[in-house]
Structure formats: structure tokens, C-alpha cells
Automatic annotation (TrEMBL):
Protein name, as recorded: Protein O-mannosyl-transferase TMTC4
Organism: Canis lupus familiaris
Residues in TPR repeats: 480-513, 514-547, 548-581, 582-615, 684-717
Source lineage: Eukaryota, Metazoa, Chordata, Craniata, Vertebrata
Pathways per UniProt: Protein modification; protein glycosylation
A GO term for molecular function: dolichyl-phosphate-mannose-protein mannosyltransferase activity
Entry EC no(s): 2.4.1.109
Family recorded in the similarity comment: Belongs to the TMTC family.
Localization in the cell: Endoplasmic reticulum; Membrane
Entry keyword set: Endoplasmic reticulum, Glycoprotein, Membrane, Repeat, TPR repeat, Transferase, Transmembrane, Transmembrane helix
Annotated TM spans: 20-38, 84-104, 110-130, 167-187, 199-217, 223-246, 267-286, 353-372, 384-405, 411-430, 439-457
Membrane association type: Multi-pass membrane protein
Amino acid sequence: MTELDADLDHIIPASVLPPFWAKLVVGFVSLVCFARSYDGDFVFDDSEAIINNKDLRADTPLGDLWHHDFWGSRLSSNTSHKSYRPLTVLTFSYYLSGGFHPMSFHVINILLHGGISVLMVDVFSVLFGGLQYTSKGRRLNLAPRSSLLAALLFAVHPVHTECVAGVVGRADLLGALFFLLSFLGYCKAFRETGNKEGTHSTFWVLLSILLGAVAMLCKEQGITVLGLNAVFDILVIGKLNVLEMVQKVLHKDKSLEKTGILRNGGLLFRMTLLASGGAGVLYMRWKIMGTGPPAFTEVDNPASFADGMLVRAINYNYYYSLNAWLLLCPWWLCFDWSMGCIPLIKSAGDWRVTAPVALWLCLIGLICQALCSEDSHRRRILTLGLGFLIIPFLPASNLFFRVGFVVAERVLYLPSAGYCMLLTFGFGALSKHTKKKKLVAAVVLGILFINMLRCMIRSGEWRNEEQLFRSALSVCPLNAKVHYNVGKNLADKGNQTAAIRYYREAVRLNPKYVHAMNNLGNILKERNELQEAEELLSLAVQIQPDFAAAWMNLGIVQNSLKRFEAAEQSYRTAIKHRRKYPDCYYNLGRLYADLNRHVDALNAWRNATVLKPEHSLAWNNMIILLDNTGNLAQAEAVGREALELIPNDHSLMFSLANVLGKSQKYKESEALFLKAIKAHPNAASYHGNLAVLYHRWGHLDLAKKHYEISLQLDPTALGTKENYGLLRRKLEQMQKKNV
């Protein structure tokens, strides 16, 4: 048992030290922390990644996953985020998930976190206790207390909530799972060799590289496990003393040539395998990406667009300090940290520069201890802890390429393991140098309890978008995206007045926020405030000329203002920027119909249905236009074609029934009317038009019945009242004749 474990004996009771019980406790605690999210909705990015992802539809070939990014866009597209995670998307697929029911997605995420937390017990036992095997090849756990405490700290860390409670966090969970399996597989390379110097199992080294590649296909940072494996090999297997080697290099000590690590052919071979394997995997991924790195905007990562290397460096380091603070004090959590949430540091006089200074002082102190300590056990733990903290974070550091976020809690999932390792070591050191061991134990238990409580609260906030978005208002009040999302959520629920207030605040905070302008313009359009709507949408397309949705909405507003030429031009511009835009073709057809350009209208609607065969409104408008212009045979053909594609659409049944009634195909028309009414029994027009059919057909009693039902549903329908009056007079005349 290690010295650190002995220092923790008053915190971790001996009754939970056996591996089975330790893992059971960790697994149970991890599930309890995030159980509240099991029945949550799809929130925030979940909609784009799952509901709107074309790759996840039942009729999409699974092979398409290998050519598209995480969001379903082609990797060759200039708009792709290049987030290539096909194995994660595969777990979202319709076939594996059994349909798009949020509960199944959330339950899988919770179980994944539980499994990863259990694996952490084994990982930490290696990191804290090193690798020692029995004669039968069974690994000894020399640090049961410290590995259990670190695993518990990891399991209950609130910064993991985004990964566990947000379905898109599946990428981080799967990446972490295969990351840990790769590391443990690498450790097994030394199991059967008796840990003899220079010996290893090449099979396990290669399997570890393969698992690292699998981790990368789940989440990009998974490939960093190869770096951690290399550090572990050099420090634990190779037993390198970095400080001693640096001193020998500086003093040109001839004994350097005799250093074991340089003469260790097995270590050099493993490093070659790791380096070549990592390079090969990265090269293949670069080839798959096709068009180079993704193009992000200033609002995604403002520091990377700042003028001057010094300003960028200061802000990057400030971001690092914020990430460190989230690990240290995970109370202020937010679903999004962009759009002004963290203003840029533009001068050295900004008090916030003290944060990166404090961070680097702490890191330098830890590095000095890791290098200079005379205790080899301390050196190894601190170096591996720092390695686990820093290496998985490197892809998100902006050092190698620009990333599309400022701070993202999800990227801290793996680095938090390094933090938990360092924290456990700190508790052990504190316990060793103080007599108040019960106080240390109380602090540790207090942290575990508070973090569990925070996890439960935060999991509840991730259950639906309203709670999630509103929880961010107090954390990031300057974040325009937070106000935008609150407004969008309110608009979706029909509260337009409140939505307008939040959209206006989003535009005030970010005057170039075109999506907020577009949504605000849409609401104002619906409220018939057309002048301001046109101004907002015009500004949006001026800021972003290729914003197709804003061009279409501008066309709708201009059409309402009777500015038909300008509306047509706006629609055409929208289609130029988004060629496959069925809704825009639909609105263009409406414009042509208003201008009595019937052929152009039919062509536009036909384009809409070609691009989107289930576009019910476009089919309906074609049927109605052909009906109104007397082309009953063509209207009937279009109606039948539409119903073959959308057999359960009651509005199409209604339109085709009207056409068949005029063509005196009464029986077929009646069947469609009744089917439409069964699907939508409270539609007054359905009963009214069926009554007209019966009226023509001579079934006057049935006509009377449905006229009365229609008027009960809509007493203001003048046409129905008039027809009902005609029917009553006819019935009265028939009664008089009979008398």
C-alpha cells in the first residue's frame, strides 16, 4: 500500500476497499447524481444533432455516416464544422435507439457515465499505485483508498452535467470510454512480461492504438490518449527522472549515454509505434475532412480574431483560468459561454489578468514539485496528474487550431480526471501534515455531498429548455445567445410579447446577431408590424448576405406590403444561396398566385414538392389553384399523387374531395370527406363542404345534419349559413307539396 493511501485511512473506511464494493459504490453514486435527467427532453444542440439530422432517419443508408459530420452535413461542405464522429452518430441511429424517444437516449448517457466512473477506479489505481503484477498476471491495487476517493470525486463532479444530461454529450462519454480502455490496454502490454526491462506485448500496444483511433471517431480529443500512454510509459515503465536528465544535459555529463531510457530498445520501439500510429490516424482524419479546418466566426471565439498576438495570448490564458475555476468551483455553469458572455481583455490594466497569473503560479508550483521532489512516488503522481489534466485539453486550447467556442464544460470531462487525481493527492498531503484529520475527512465528505447536490440540481435544469436557458441568465447576462434561446423558447410556446423582449435584448447585446433579427422580424411580421420587420430583415441580409432564411422572410414581408417585384427578388436571392429550399419555392408560388401568374405558381409549388415530397401546403395550393381555374382533371391527378405520398394528410383529403364532388364522383368524394372528418372532427369547413356535396347529391337529410354541425363549430360562416338557408327553404317547399 502506498504512503498516500496510508494518509487517507481516516477518510475511506476499510469496508469499501475490496474492488467489487469500491466499484459498486462509485457506480451507484454516479447514477444517483444524474438520475434526474433520465426523462428529460431533447434540449439545445440535441435538436440539430438528432431530430434534424438527416443521417438518423430510418430511410438513410448507414454508409452516409462515414461521409458526413456530427450534424449531418457533408464534410466537403464549407459550412461543415468538421466534427467527424461517425461512431457516436451510429449510436443515435434510428435502428439502435428504437426511435427518437428522449428517455432512451438519456438513460444510455447516464449508464455510460456510470461505467466510465467505475473504470476510473482501475485507472486511478494504476496512476497512484503503479503497475505491479502477481505471478499469475493479476494486477495489484496498491492504492485502493486514493483510487476510490479520486473516482468518487470524478463521479460526482458537476461539470460533467452537460455531457451526461445533454444527449450530444454522448460524444464525450464514448470518447472517454475508449480513451480509458486504450490506457488500460496499454497497461496490459506489460502484464505477461513480468515487467522486465524493455519487454512488452506488442499486441496490446497495437490494440491500445486501435482503441485510441476508435476514441477519436467518437470525439476528436480521444486521440490524445496516445500522448498519455507515452508519458505513462516513460515515467512509470521507463522510470525516467526528468530533473536528473536535464541536469546531466546541462552539465554535459558523460553518464547520460549510459542512461537506461536511452538504451532501452523496447521503450523506443513503443514510442515509435505510438508516434507512427497517432500520425497515421491523424493523417487519415485530415484526408477525410477534405477541405481543411472548419471556418468559425468571431462570435464563436472572439479571442482568436483579436488584433495582436499578445491580446490573443492573454485571453487564451484567461480562458484556461476559467476552465480551471469550473473544475475547482463548479457552481456557475452555463450551456453556452459565447456571444459576449466573457468580454475580451484588451489591456494589461484589466483586473482579470490576475486570473491567468494565479493559474500559472499554481501550475509552475506543481511542475516544480513534479520535477524536483526527492520522493519518486510524489514526482510520478504529480506528473501523471498534470498529464491527465493537460493532454486531453490540448485540442481545445487554441494552440494548434482555432476552436468554435470560448469555454465548453463538455471538454473538461476527461481533464477533470487529472484534477481529481491532484485533489486527492492534496487531501493526502494535507492529512499527513495536520493533526485535525477528522476536519480533513469532514471537508472531503462535504465536497462530495455538495457536488452530488449540485449535480442533481443541474441535471434538473437540463431536463427542458426553459429551465436550461433561464438558468443561464444569472450566469451569463451579457450572452446574447442566452437571451435569444429564452426568446425562442417563449415564441415556441406562443408567448410572443415576452419573446420580443428577449430578442430585442439579444440584438442590443450583439447588434450583428442576424438570427435574433430574423426571429424578431418573423414575430413582428405575424403581428402585422411590417415596417419594423422589413427594417430588421433588411439589416440581417446586409450583415450576412448569404442568410437564405432572412431573404425568404424579407420576401414574405415585402409581399404583404404589396412590393411584389422586391419580394420576387428576395425569394430569388434566397434560392440562389440555398438551392434546395422548398419553403422558399412555396412562398414564391404564393406570390405568383397573387399576381395571377398561374403557370409560374404551379411550377414553383412543383419545385417545392420535388425537393420536399411531404410539403402538404404546396400540394394543397396546386390542387386548389387547378380547381379554381377549372382544371378539374389535372387537379384530381395532382391530388391523387399527393395522397400517395402523404396518405394521412386530412387537408389533402379535403381538397381532393372538393374536386371529386365537382366532377360528380360523389361516392369517392364522400369517402374522402368522412375520412378527413374522422382525422379532424372539429373542422367546420369539412362538415360544411360535405353538406354541400350531399346537397348536390340529393341526400338532403345528411346535408342538413352536416350544415348544422358546421354552424355549431363556426356560427360566423356566411357561406354555410346561406347554403343552409337554401336547403331549409327547399325542404319546406317539399313538405308543402307533400301536404
